[in-house]
Every structure is written in structure tokens, then in C-alpha cells.
Write a structure and sequence with these properties.
Blueprint lengths: L1 H22 L6 H22 L4 H26 L3 H7 L3 H26 L23 E3 L1 H6 L1 H7 L5 E6 H11 L4 H19 L4 E6 L9 H12 L2 E4 L2 H9 L4 E3 H7 L9 E9 L5 E5 L5 E5 L8 E12 L2 E7 L17
Parallel strand pairs: 1-2, 1-4, 2-3, 4-5, 8-10
Antiparallel strand pairs: 6-7, 6-9, 7-8, 9-10
Helix pairs in contact: 1-2, 3-5, 8-9
Length: 352
């Protein structure tokens, strides 16, 4: 597809250069006419590459706005041109000034209508105009925008490879710049994190699956914070931000942008443990309370075990007494019998 577009552009430039050279529209000079034709062709191609990045709503809004602006300018220009010679002499309006005023008004109204219509085009509801005006894929899925923290985390690559993240994965250019800055940091820890993020991106690009990687060139120079840029990009693309940043999650939801939090997904996938079940854990360290031990499951869930202080560094069987779900994750409380046997849980109230 890229080869076909390039070939068409080359033919387009050659056609305008040839037309200018043989037709000689500018002062009868073929060389000057060919140069001007080439300039017009290159300018047209540059405009075409820019307008291809615009959304359908922006294009429709800009077209409607420019048409309305030109129509209003034409009406006012017709009123000015309708003045006859006698009236022009009375008001002292020269004919050349009326022509200049009409042309200026036409350009001004057309430009203002185009810019305002393009900006306000995001408020259009294309579904009310019929299915032919709905952008491709807009009714099926929204683009998923990856932030810096979730790329460095790395779990998003595993999720994408399993097929649970399907569609378009958008990686903003300002996120790539932030990753590059972290990778070039003098701090070894930050440098390793940045390099890990770049490795994850390479892994996503190499593994072809149900997703497509798109590098977004959109930027917001007036906004300095990367998190705020992500939110604005999410609003512009009507996409969802994939992150594990708790603060970005809350701010994006307040701004009306959908968020997919990797940590929430991980918590939802943790195995369900009920009071009374027996589980085997490795007591790693001492707990905060008297005679407590602390263990961790493979998914990182903390297990607080009563009567397990003497069992640090050993595998023990514990009985689950309660499960506490917090915003940071899940905590499991259990009890270990001092003789090495798991015991039945104590009767606890709902407040415990």
C-alpha cells in the first residue's frame, strides 16, 4: 500500500511539472512554470499527509464550517457588490476597494469556518447520520493507549500475547521520549527500568497477534505532564488508557477517560481462598505482631500466619482464618499449630 501511494505521488508531481513546462502559464517561461508546478505538487502532498491523520469528525466539521463561512461571506459580498455606481459615489467606496473587501471577507470567513468547524467537529454524533458515516472500527473497539509505567511493568506484553488485549495498541511519541530519558538516566535503577521498557516494546512489535502497534505522533505542547497528555490523547482518540498508576487511574476517570488498570486485573485473577481451607506456604520473615510469621504466594499475596515465628525459613501448613481485600491487593490471615499440624480456624465475628 505504501509503494502504491508513493508511486501515485511521483506521477502527480511529474504531471504538474510537465503541465507547467509545456503549457507555460507563468509569463511564458517553461522553467519557472515547471518549478511553480513542482512547488504546488509538493504543497498538495504535504497537505494530504496532514489531513490523513484527522478523524472523520474533524473533516466533516471543517467542511461544514468552511462551507457556512464561505456562504456567509458570499452573501455579504453580494450586498457590497450590489451597490450601483451612484451609491458608490455617495458613500465614497471605490470599485477596487469593494473587490478587495469582498475577497478578504471570503478568505476570512472561510478560514474561520474551517478552523472552528474542525475544532468543534468532535461534538458531532455521527451515529445519528447513519452507519455510512461511522468510522471503521469505532463501533467495535476503542484504541488502547499504553502509558510509561505499564510498559516498564512488562505484564502488558504477556496479556497482549494471550489475546486479551485485541485491537490497536497506541504508543504515544511523548511516552517513547520519556522511556528514552529514563534509559539514559545516570541512576542505574532508572536506567535498567527504561531499558526494560524499550525491550518490552520490541517484544510487542515482534510478536504478531490480535493487536496492532501504532506510534502516535500527537503531542500537546501546552501540557507538560505526561499523564495529562495521555488523558488528552485518550479524549481525542476516544480510547482507553492502559496503566498500573493509581493516581493516573483516578484522574483519568474524573476527566471521563476510560482506564484499564493492570493491577486491578491481577487482583481479579488471584485464586479465591475461603476461611477454613488448608494451604502450604513458606514462612519468610517475622510479622509485626507477637509470634507472627509472614509468607507470600506466587502472585505476591501476603499471608500473615499466627504462631509461626519459630517456623521462619520452613514450609508449613496453615488454616485460613480470614481474607482481607484492600485497594493495594489481598491479604490472607492464617493460623499454624505449634506442634506442626494445621488447626481449624477460630470462630470469628464479621468485624474480625
Amino acid at each position: 500500500m505504501r509503494f502504491d501511494v508513493t508511486l501515485i505521488r511521483i506521477v502527480f508531481i511529474a504531471a504538474l511539472v510537465s503541465a507547467g513546462y509545456f503549457l507555460k502559464p507563468f509569463y511564458g517561461r517553461p522553467g519557472l512554470s515547471a518549478v511553480i508546478g513542482a512547488f504546488i505538487a509538493v504543497s498538495t502532498i504535504f497537505f494530504e499527509t496532514r489531513i490523513r491523520k484527522a478523524t472523520l469528525k474533524t473533516l466533516i466539521g471543517g467542511a461544514v464550517g468552511s462551507i457556512l463561512g464561505i456562504a456567509a461571506a458570499s452573501l455579504i459580498g453580494w450586498v457590497i457588490s450590489a451597490q450601483n455606481g451612484a451609491q458608490a459615489e455617495i458613500y465614497g467606496i471605490p470599485e477596487n476597494f469593494k473587490t478587495f473587501l469582498t475577497l478578504t471577507l471570503m478568505l476570512f470567513m472561510g478560514y474561520v469556518g474551517l478552523v472552528v468547524g474542525a475544532v468543534k467537529g468532535d461534538y458531532l454524533d455521527l451515529t445519528a447520520l447513519g452507519g455510512i458515516f461511522i468510522e471503521k472500527g469505532s463501533s467495535k473497539s476503542h484504541p488502547l493507549i499504553l502509558d510509561t509505567s505499564v510498559i516498564i511493568d512488562g505484564r502488558v506484553a504477556d496479556i497482549a500475547e494471550t489475546g486479551f488485549l485485541a485491537g490497536t495498541l497506541v504508543i504515544p511519541q511523548f511516552v517513547l521520549r520519556e522511556l528514552q530519558q529514563i534509559a539514559d538516566s545516570a541512576d542505574s535503577i532508572k536506567r535498567n527500568r527504561g531499558r526494560r521498557g524499550l525491550d518490552i516494546l520490541q517484544r510487542l512489535q515482534k510478536k504478531k497477534g490480535s493487536y496492532e502497534i501504532v506510534i502516535s505522533e500527537a503531542d500537546f505542547p501546552d501540557i507538560r505532564e505526561v499523564d495529562h497528555k495521555l488523558i488528552e490523547l485518550g479524549r481525542q482518540l476516544e480510547g482507553k488508557i492502559v496503566t498500573n498508576d493509581f493516581n493516573l487511574n483516578k484522574v483519568a476517570q474524573l476527566r471521563g477517560v476510560s482506564v484499564l488498570n493492570i493491577n486491578e486485573l491481577a487482583n481479579a485473577l488471584k485464586p479465591v481462598v475461603l476461611p477454613g481451607e488448608i494451604m502450604r506456604v513458606f514462612v519468610l520473615k517475622e510479622g509485626k505482631e507477637y509470634n507472627q510469621g509472614v509468607a507470600y504466594l506466587d502472585d505476591g499475596t501476603m499471608v500473615v500466619v499466627d504462631n509461626a515465628r519459630r517456623m521462619i525459613g520452613k514450609n508449613v501448613d496453615v488454616s485460613v482464618t480470614s481474607v482481607l481485600q484492600t485497594t493495594a491487593g489481598k491479604m490472607i490471615f492464617g493460623r499454624f499449630n505449634e506442634d506442626g499440624r494445621a488447626v481449624a480456624p477460630r470462630q470469628t465475628t464479621a468485624s474480625q
